[in-house]
Design goal:
Oligomer: single chain
Shape: globular
Number of helices: 12
Largest sheet: 9 strands, antiparallel
Length: about 375
């Protein structure tokens, strides 16, 4: 059986933390079943996995990462134009490029832009085009040279570059998590890694933490400041799907590279925590349980195991997860291979526990073997 989908299920516990905040500074929440749950957004999780450092960092795999910013024309391209043309032609070039990439008001207003993900090869490509434009005789000609890049009839834009040189020129992040380029829709990349919002398997647990800041040069009982913040605790269910076929396609057909991505991602899901309020809460945790499924059937979350809130213990959550999976197998049949890494046995799963490294390596091997199976 070849592997089309990899599904990663994890249970991770945190105490006295504020992992992901909303616009009011409180913990993100969601109602599910008959209880309100604490939530961690998929954007928060992916951000941490993209920027993680260490042995299992995505940046350690090999291909270059990418830059996500609203200021690429000013911060990356303008400095590369030093000494070319005049100050006016350089500025006209950068303004035209900002409009082409971010929209009609982008030259005058950074705040109107959405952060755009560009690979380092793409930035180098744009720098080359910008150098030629900045060398034009006047600002109007410089701006027109940039505008021509993004006209469909010219076909000299990012989409054409991707067709000619492959999707990894958009950076490894785009190949994994996708991207949207409103100015150049053909340069959009479909994400083969799908990440659900994590949520507590039980009802929310939170409190308001009242704290003071002591002024070292103040005498008497006074404080330098009085504040409050919300803290939460909980056992979270994390769910990730990897479309192996889509991942290999985005990696220019390199199944071995896709295997490395899968191996790194399993480690990151298990060991990388959201980074909010690190200095005051040290929100670091490793997953208590990681269950990985591989196969060809369409994926399905196991979140239904927690529609009725579980007890806030790993034992109860793991038992519910196993029973829900058994019910699914009874109705639909078992169509997946399963690998379990856990701190404790989960007898209802009927799986032998393995070290996380062995799970990640085995699933990576299945992913890398897909190319040979497809051939």
């Amino acid at each position: 059986m070849t592997t089309r989908f990899v599904q990663i299920h994890a249970l991770a516990s945190y105490s006295a933390a504020l992992l992901n905040r909303d616009d009011s500074g409180l913990a993100k929440r969601m109602p599910y079943g008959n209880a309100m749950r604490t939530r961690i957004s998929s954007q928060c999780l992916k951000r941490r996995w993209r920027t993680a450092e260490g042995e299992w960092a995505l940046s350690a795999i090999g291909p270059e990462m990418a830059v996500r910013s609203r200021k690429i024309p000013e911060e990356r391209i303008l400095p590369a134009l030093a000494g070319i043309g005049t100050e006016e032609t350089r500025q006209a070039t950068v303004d035209a490029l900002a409009i082409a990439l971010y929209g009609k008001n982008a030259a005058a207003d950074h705040g109107s832009r959405q952060a755009l993900l560009l690979g380092e090869p793409e930035i180098a490509y744009l720098i080359g085009k910008a150098r030629a434009a900045a060398a034009e005789a006047d600002p109007k000609a410089a701006a027109e040279a940039i505008e021509r890049l993004f006209r469909k009839e010219e076909k000299a834009n990012l989409a054409e570059m991707l067709k000619a040189k492959g999707p990894l020129h958009a950076g490894l992040e785009a190949a994994l998590f996708g991207r949207m380029v409103t100015s150049d829709p053909e340069a959009n990349t479909e994400a083969p890694i799908h990440v659900a919002h994590a949520f507590t398997v039980h009802g929310e647990q939170s409190e308001i933490d009242y704290f003071t800041v002591v002024d070292d040069l103040e005498s008497g009982p006074g404080a330098g400041g009085i504040f409050d913040t919300e803290l939460t605790a909980g056992l979270f269910y994390v769910y990730v799907v990897i479309d192996v076929e889509g991942l290999i396609a985005n990696l220019a057909g390199d199944a071995a590279l896709a295997g490395k991505v899968v191996e790194h991602l399993i480690h990151l899901v298990a060991t990388t925590s959201p980074g909010a309020k690190k200095g005051s809460t040290a929100p670091y945790a490793y997953a208590d349980l990681v269950l990985v499924e591989t196969g060809n059937r369409p994926p399905r979350s196991l979140s239904g195991a927690f529609r009725v809130p579980a007890q806030p213990t790993v034992a109860d959550a793991a038992e519910r997860l196993a029973k829900h999976l058994c019910r699914l197998d009874a109705m639909y049949g078992r169509g997946e291979r399963r690998y379990l890494a856990a701190l404790e046995d989960v007898p209802a799963l009927g799986l032998d526990r393995m070290p996380l490294a062995d799970v990640a390596s085995a699933v990576a091997g299945e992913t890398a073997a897909r190319e040979a199976a497809a051939a």
